[in-house]
Write a structure and sequence with these properties.
Elements (H helix, E strand, L loop, with lengths): L8 H12 L5 H7 L7 H23 L9 H5 L13 E4 L3 E4 L2 E2 H7 L11 H10 L5 H13 L5 H8 L7 H12 L4 H7 L8 H27 L13 H9 L4 H13 L8 H11 L4 H12 L7 H16 L5 H13 L17 H13 L4 H20 L10 H10 L8 H22 L12 H11 L1
Antiparallel strand pairs: 1-2, 2-3
């Protein structure tokens, strides 16, 4: 994050004053803060030229540097392992897990601002971090919370579009429909139609992205209350932060649930650019589709069983264990049930990952939350047993590169404990969270002028002929 330093005279002056002020400390900092210090857009206007020059230098000086060798396995294996995307907001290490702008999840929990009396990071703080590369102050996060609230009005036609669907339509179908209906108000589309300069593409993209992030909890909670609570809508409470207000609108006001939602949204926000939803958003946006169209496409990818729908599948599978064997299932009985699942040609949902080769740090922080707040919950205890039972079995099976639990192995049990037990809805929560990472990167895509994505494809015959020549 060192390259995200401020270059303005005001920032240099503030830094010198902060160093000199030993008696006033943070008071001096607050006194010299200007309105632009609390405004996220102003921070980006300051950072973007520096990063544009950085990328230009990389391309001009190192454009021909090779990043690795592409194998036939990669080509026919879903491009797995290929280095082929620029994604600034996060980086996934197979052994260390996700880092948001260089910070691990435990580090984010330590340094990002929390709610008054809370312990978990506020999603608004992570949004600031992803966009600027800087850890925000409590004042900056508070200002961003208020800005998101000011942008959160959802027009009536969005609700009408959702209401046109059958009540039993999948929650993700209803949610994506709501996002598409929001697209009518796209600032990027208006600006593009009006002939905006390429250098300013990021500005309406920023407006759309923050508007989208602000409105998603309202659309998502409307879908939940429509399907599961007879359409009884819970109005927003603008005294609450982003995550807490989302929980409130869903109908859950337990302080521990508010903390869980802050943690949930934060850790699900981004997972570098190669996963289906993130890559889809980047691909669609590379055609200059606006953030609404791009994010709706991402949601359709997230709805797949091999991606975001997995968190739904985990809780349903765990409940099937309880239904068949009871809550007090022994370790040996659980081993038998896992083998039964695998031998039937199915997978144990929540274990394994396309990139990670260790226990997902997002699983670990959720486990720590559970140990703190619901250690005696029977489903949590079952999840703990699975943590002991499943990895050795998958290792013995010999077909799984990563036998360890991922983020989906835990989230459903936590949500279920606080009353949000409708597993079909879980992917919507994932979608709201993922908007923060996807939209942050879309803004930088436009700021850096990243081009249309257009990889080369080949036929099976081409691969066969190439391998013959290489032999």
């Amino acid at each position: 994050m060192s390259f995200f330093r401020s270059v303005t005279a005001l920032s240099k002056l503030r830094s010198r004053l902060a160093q000199q002020s030993t008696t006033l400390g943070s008071v001096r900092w607050i006194q010299i803060q200007s309105a632009s210090d609390l405004d996220l857009r102003s921070q980006l206007q300051e950072l973007i030229p520096e990063q544009q020059e950085r990328l230009k230098k990389l391309k001009s000086e190192h454009g021909k540097v090779q990043l690795g060798n592409i194998t036939l396995d990669m080509v026919i294996g879903g491009m797995r392992g290929m280095t082929g995307l620029l994604w600034e907001t996060s980086l996934l290490d197979p052994d260390e897990g996700i880092r948001f702008r260089g910070l691990s999840i435990p580090e984010c929990q330590k340094v990002l601002p929390t709610a008054n009396g809370g312990e978990e990071p506020l999603p608004e703080g992570l949004l600031w971090l992803l966009l600027t590369g800087k850890v925000p102050s409590k004042e900056q996060v508070s200002a961003l919370s208020k800005e998101l609230q000011s942008r959160s009005t959802v027009p009536d036609h969005v609700y009408k579009a959702i209401d046109a669907l059958p009540i039993n339509a999948h929650p993700m179908t209803q949610f994506t429909t709501g996002v598409m209906a929001l697209q009518v108000q796209s600032e990027f589309q208006k600006a593009y139609d009006g002939g905006i300069s390429k250098a300013k593409y990021w500005e309406p993209t920023y407006e759309d992205s923050l508007n989208l992030i602000a409105r998603l909890p309202i659309v998502a909670s409307y879908v939940y209350r429509r399907i599961y609570k007879n359409g009884q809508i819970v109005p927003a409470d603008n005294s609450l932060d982003y995550g807490a207000n989302f929980s409130h609108m869903l109908g859950f006001d337990d302080p521990k649930m508010l903390e869980l939602m802050r943690l949930y949204v934060t850790i699900h926000s981004d997972h570098e650019g190669g996963n289906v939803s993130a890559h889809t958003a980047h691909l669609v946006a590379s055609a200059l589709s606006d953030p609404y169209l791009s994010f709706a496409a991402a949601l359709n990818g997230l709805a797949g069983p091999l991606h975001g729908l997995a968190n739904q599948e985990v809780l349903l599978w765990i409940k099937s264990v309880v239904k068949e064997r009871g809550e007090n299932i022994s370790t040996e009985q659980l081993k038998d049930y896992v083998w039964k699942t695998l031998k039937s040609g199915k997978v144990v949902p929540g274990f394994g990952h396309g990139v990670l080769r260790k226990t997902d740090p997002r699983y670990t922080c959720q486990r720590e939350f559970a140990l703190k707040h619901l250690p005696d919950d029977s489903l949590f205890q079952l999840v703990s047993k699975l943590y002991e039972v499943v990895p050795p079995i998958l290792t013995e099976l010999g077909k799984v590169k990563n036998p360890w639990p991922n983020v989906d192995a835990h989230s459903g049990v936590l949500l279920n404990y606080f009353g949000l037990s409708e597993a079909r809805y879980y992917t919507v929560l994932f979608g709201v969270s993922r908007s923060i990472g996807i939209c942050s990167q879309l803004i930088w895509d436009r700021a850096l002028g990243l081009p249309l994505e257009r990889p080369k494809s080949v036929t099976m015959e081409w691969l066969e002929n190439h391998c013959k020549k290489a032999a």
